[in-house]
Design goal:
Blueprint: H1 3-23, E1 46-52, H2 69-85, E2 90-94, H3 104-113, E3 118-125, E4 139-142, H4 146-162, H5 168-199, E5 204-208, E6 224-231, H6 235-242, H7 244-266
Parallel strand pairs: 1-2, 1-3, 3-6, 4-5
Antiparallel strand pairs: 4-6
Helix pairs in contact: 1-3, 1-4, 1-5, 2-7, 4-5, 5-7, 6-7
């Protein structure tokens, strides 16, 4: 493990403590505790945590006309939150509700403390250096790569041990983190499919595991997806992302994808 990764792992340990706590364990066997036998109550809501990227002094991408990524992501999160909150059985938590700087780890803790069932981090893209500005457009989605999942599983086990849980609990905590990876991929593909239908398959850049800063997806305790909704340096994408009509199209697609994932998780 490189020195850089060791630093990242150490900084992530505290944020992962809620994951180990949520996993729970049977002191006798390391299994999650069985539910008490009682009359069935109302179903728990499906919790979606939304993270509008950047904020405050962290502007994110800056478009040629001065539009800021932090403003686009906040506007989109508000529209998406309204749509999701209107759906039966859904509770929404917005991890940045105004133009303030929120640390990366605080965003992950927001999802963990809300016991989120899905975490979406919203961003807008820009062409990388060496590529002509405005030459790329479209949306893409990211989930954690295997090495980050491995790190998080190790950290969850360490957090369980530090919390004084019975020894099998660390194994369960690790397994729970690993189990989130395929569910995150499932959520990402549901969102991708809805965005393709709404914006056009030609704009789809796929579901990826590298090519973006994905620290915000670590320690959330939930299937987590980072969505790059478009390129701010593309005149066509920017027109979509700046307009209320375009934002509603994107929000509607993301809401539909999240609800599709919710329905699949209930089966």
């Amino acid at each position: 493990m490189s020195a850089a990764r060791i630093t990242l792992v150490a900084s992530t340990l505290a944020a992962l403590a809620p994951v180990a706590t949520r996993a729970g364990a049977d002191p006798a066997g390391g299994r999650p505790p069985a539910a008490a036998v009682s009359a069935p109550g109302p179903a728990a809501p499906f919790v979606v945590a939304l993270d509008p990227g950047h904020g405050g002094s962290n502007l994110g991408k800056v478009a040629a006309d001065g539009v800021l990524e932090k403003d686009v992501t906040l506007a989109l999160a508000r529209r998406l939150a309204a749509r999701l909150a209107a759906a039966p059985g859904v509770r929404v938590v917005v991890c940045r509700e105004r133009d303030v700087l929120v640390p990366i780890r605080a965003r992950a803790r927001c999802a963990a403390e809300a016991r989120a069932d899905l975490f979406l981090s919203l961003h807008a893209n820009a062409t990388p250096e060496g590529v002509p500005p405005g030459s790329e457009r479209g949306f893409e989605l990211y989930v954690l790569p295997p090495e980050d999942v491995d790190d998080d599983a190790t950290l969850a086990a360490l957090a369980a041990r530090r919390a004084g849980a019975p020894s099998p609990a660390d194994v369960w905590a690790s397994r729970r983190v690993r189990a989130l990876a395929p569910r995150a991929a499932e959520a990402a593909h549901a969102l991708d499919g809805r965005l393709r239908a709404a914006l056009g398959a030609g704009l789809a850049r796929g579901v990826r595991q590298s090519g973006a800063a994905l620290d915000v997806l670590r320690g959330t305790g939930a299937p987590s997806v980072l969505v790059e909704v478009g390129f701010l340096d593309s005149a066509l994408d920017r027109a979509l992302l700046e307009s209320p009509t375009g934002q509603e199209r994107v929000a509607a697609a993301l809401a539909a994808g999240a609800l599709e994932f919710k329905a699949a998780a209930a089966r």
